């Protein structure tokens, strides 16, 4: 259970489904509620697939290119810190994807994979964390627990997107801005932790 909660907490702030709500509502404003819910469900299923694939196969990809996990943690930490800084600034939710991507998404009938699942929900930061979760010391049960954590994250993200219209009306712009700053601070802390843990492992455990 601890592994499930640790996986969920590590990914939730970076995935930040609350930050995806404004873009999701913009891209589905002309859709029926049923179609909007289907788009949200498919996007969350795609997110599970993307994060699970990178969790299970990411280490082998790194080995193929000769990249150490510590290198990934430092690079991923820098990306996560940048995402955190963006969330701490006003209008961060609008900056998460470019206006060109939003405009292209408005012309598409299916926005579940792109831009919603990638890069909104499972972006570079979430992918970096997913790869970083894999270690050779994990048992099969541990891996299953991590995958369950990813599925739990997708379920919560679907609920948030499904009720995004009601949440936006209830929280208002000021509430969403405050939530964005809270998420930004947490994401920034995660990025710092990634970099510090990688540097500690490089300089104090490797000889």
UniProtKB/TrEMBL annotation:
Coiled coil: none annotated. The keyword Repressor does not apply. It is found in: Cell membrane. It is a multi-pass membrane protein. It comes from the Bacteria. InterPro entries: Multi_antbiot-R_MarC (IPR002771). The keyword Membrane applies. The chain crosses the membrane at residues 46-65, 116-134, 140-161, 182-204. Keywords: Cell membrane, Membrane, Transmembrane, Transmembrane helix. Belongs to the UPF0056 (MarC) family. PANTHER family: UPF0056 MEMBRANE PROTEIN YHCE. This is UPF0056 membrane protein. It comes from Pontibacter locisalis.
